[in-house]
Amino acid sequence: MSGPAEDGHDAGRAEFSAKSLRVLIADDHAPTRAEVRRVLEDDDGFDVCATVADAVEAVRAALQHQPDVCLLDIRMPGSGLAAAWEIAARVPQAKIVMLTVSDEETDLFAALRAGADGYLLKTMNLSRLPKALQGVYKGEAAMPRALVARMIEEFHGREPRWRSPVAHESAQGRLTSREWEVLGLLAQGRSTAEIADKLVLSASAVRAHIAAIVRKLKVSNRHAAAELFRRRRLG
Predict the structure, then answer these.
(1) Which residue, among 110, 132, 105, 151, has the nearest Cα to 46 in the 3D structure?
(2) What's the fold here for domain 160-234?
(3) Of 81-95, 154-168, 219-233, minimum mean pLDDT range
(4) What is the separation of C-alpha 41 from the centre of its chain, rounded to a whole number of angstroms?
(5) What's the burial of 230, exposed, middle or buried (CB within 10 Å: 0-12/13-18/19+)?
(6) For the chain, how big is the Rg over CA atoms in Å?
(7) For the chain, domain boundaries
């Protein structure tokens, strides 16, 4: 005969099984969708409520199914970041996890600003995905250790791409964190539209940031600002 403690444990386990986490999978790569679905459905703790291929359908499915977790690809049509913003606003109880091939810091920070609760790489061992999603649902962070280290460096201000002063930057004209991000992307040769997509901003907001950067650095245009930034990094 089972003791009270065992009975309580079994009841708790049954309750968790009865309350499987409902997951929305959004990815434009059909084999990835299928593999992620298989991994989750092989685990009794999950119920895949929808699989979609673009951002518009992701938002629609999130509103319809009210999932516990939304697993979104950053690069899918319509932008996984845009989907994250809208789902976070309209389905606030849902946890959002990005599953992506991108280990770029700008994508990581943009995802966190968009409301993501986790950021996982598609190179991970997918057998670890169920545990990672359960952790996110309980309030834990899900992120590769290498990206955690980069995030800490960013917030400590040791990353020279974002924090090194450039010539002509005065205390009164110091760039904001967002302006540093825009300037860094300008130096990579990104267009206004590409920067807007990366940082999940409107094109007009990006142009306003660029105008502020040009004014603060006392240069003639965006190209001069980008060149100044590149010279300072290499100097």
Answers:
(1) 132
(2) Arc Repressor Mutant, subunit A (1.10.10)
(3) 154-168
(4) 24
(5) middle
(6) 21
(7) 4-152, 160-234
